């Protein structure tokens, strides 16, 4: 590995935030050597606790994260926050709002904040988030908090990779309970009804509890439903206690989960295959020939795909036997 990268890695490990930010960008942008960075830090990770925070837009996720991150920081934890920004132009205001809400928290020495775009992440959002979490883990962050709006499969995947998932709802957000997306409900470890300074919080609490009673498995623990207000700070201490409690339990059994590792390896292979397809099957002119055949009625998508795959396999085999890239 280049000496420059090795230095960057060392500096990031020594709690140099600029080096940490540069290291993250290098990997996010898939610059030369990014994979070597990830390979070399992997063995020194696995210590951090990842908390996913998700829920409907405007539920108060960022405000809440700000409040509990500060408390956790005061308890001595070193914290990384990843805010997955919705990159749609309609949410420009919300993104700016996030920055403002996060402003006082950025004065905390032991809180490091990083935004991440939803779209256009090289290697996919989920893997990109995993990589960033891992780098923060390597750089000694005890806790990494990921905030995402719980819409879209990608984002659900991101939070589902967290150790602990907090789902935030609020009174006045339309039909809050109905708005909880299927798929998010199942992965939540804790339900938070935020903005409890407003009317109607208790109704939501009972609705969610009722829904959990209905859908819960007999054997498994039913997640708690709590009330918070990022405005009046009600319930924040309780939330911090619940999170601290989870982290202490996790410390006792920090083993790597076979299933998570399997998912990650599969996802990396999928991404690499996809770029191989882009580069070697769809990008070399043979595709155009096949498309013309389909349009002129001489072929069909199934046969074309088969032919392209065959050609790819033959090329790969030839390359293997000759040791040359064709
Ligand atoms: N009354 C009240 N308002 C709150 C509370 N928490 C957040 N808000 C307000 O709700 C609005 C949205 O808060 P955010 O923290 O940006 O919510 P978010 O869920 O992060 O929003 P997105 O990231 O855009 O989805 C802001 O105007 C906050 O000031 C709360 O507990 N009570
Ligand atoms: Mg937010």
Question: Concise description?
Answer:
The protein has 326 residues and is α/β, with parallel strands linked by helices.
Explain this structure to me?
The chain has a 7-stranded parallel β-sheet, with helices on both faces. It has helices at about 5-15, 15-30, 35-40, 60-75, 90-100, 125-140, 155-160, 175-180, 200-215, 235-250, 260-280, 285-295, 300-320, and strands spanning about 50-55, 80-85, 110-115, 145-150, 165-170, 190-195, 225. It is globular and about 65 Å long. The protein has about 325 residues and is α/β, with parallel strands linked by helices. Helix 8 (about 175-180) links the parallel strand 5 (about 165-170) and strand 6. It has 13 helices and 7 strands. The protein starts with a helix and ends with a helix. It folds into 3 domains: about 1-45, no CATH class; about 45-255, Rossmann fold (3-Layer(aba) Sandwich), CATH 3.40.50; about 265-320, no CATH class. The model is unreliable at about 90-95 (pLDDT under 50). It is about 50% helix and about 15% strand. Magnesium ion (MG) binds near residues 62, 98 and 147.
The 3D shape can be described as: globular
- Based on the coordinates given, report the CATH architecture of the largest domain: 3-Layer(aba) Sandwich
Which CATH class of the largest domain applies here? Alpha Beta
Q: What is the fourth-level CATH superfamily of the largest domain?
A: P-loop containing nucleotide triphosphate hydrolases
Taking strands numbered 1, 2, ... along the chain, how are they ordered across the largest sheet?
A: 3-2-4-1-5-6-7
Name the average pLDDT: 85
The string of secondary-structure elements, in order, is HHHEHEHEHEHEHEHEHHHH
Percent helix, as a range, is 40-55%
Report the strand count.
7
Which fold name corresponds to the CATH topology of the largest domain? Rossmann fold
Number of helices: 13
Intertermini distance? 28 Å
Structure ligands: guanosine-5'-triphosphate, magnesium ion
* Largest sheet composition: 7 strands, parallel
- The portion of residues forming beta strands comes to 5-15%
Rounded Rg = 23 Å
Structural class: alpha/beta
Low-confidence stretches: 88-97
- How many domain modules? 3
């Amino acid at each position: 590995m280049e000496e420059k990268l090795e230095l960057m890695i060392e500096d990031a490990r020594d709690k140099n935030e600029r080096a940490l930010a540069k290291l993250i960008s290098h990997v996010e942008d898939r610059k030369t050597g990014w994979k070597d960075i990830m390979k070399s830090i992997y063995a020194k990770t696995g210590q951090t606790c990842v908390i996913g925070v998700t829920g409907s837009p405007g539920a108060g996720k960022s405000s809440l994260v700000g409040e509990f991150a500060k408390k956790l920081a005061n308890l001595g934890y070193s914290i990384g926050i990843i805010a997955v920004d919705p990159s749609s132009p309609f949410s420009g205001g919300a993104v700016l709002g996030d920055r403002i809400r996060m402003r006082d928290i950025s004065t905390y020495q032991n809180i490091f904040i990083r935004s991440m775009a939803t779209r256009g992440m090289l290697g996919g959002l989920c893997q990109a988030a995993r990589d960033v979490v891992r780098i923060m883990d390597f750089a000694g962050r005890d806790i990494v908090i990921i905030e995402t709006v719980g819409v879209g499969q990608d984002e659900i995947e991101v939070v589902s990779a967290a150790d602990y998932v907090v789902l935030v709802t609020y009174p006045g957000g339309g039909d809050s309970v109905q708005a909880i997306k299927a798929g998010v409900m199942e992965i939540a470890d804790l339900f938070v009804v935020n903005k409890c300074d407003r009317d109607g919080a208790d109704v939501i609490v009972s609705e969610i509890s009722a829904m959990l009673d209905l859908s819960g498995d007999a054997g498994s623990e039913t997640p708690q439903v709590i009330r918070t207000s990022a405005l009046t700070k009600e319930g924040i201490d309780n939330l911090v206690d619940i999170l601290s409690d989870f982290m202490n339990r996790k410390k006792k059994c920090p083993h790597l989960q076979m299933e998570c590792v399997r998912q990650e390896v599969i996802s990396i292979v999928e991404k690499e295959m996809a770029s191989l397809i882009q580069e070697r099957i769809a990008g070399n002119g043979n595709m155009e020939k096949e498309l013309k055949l389909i349009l002129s009625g001489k072929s069909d998508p199934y046969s074309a795909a088969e032919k392209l795959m065959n050609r790819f396999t033959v090329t790969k085999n030839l390359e293997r036997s000759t040791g040359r890239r064709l």
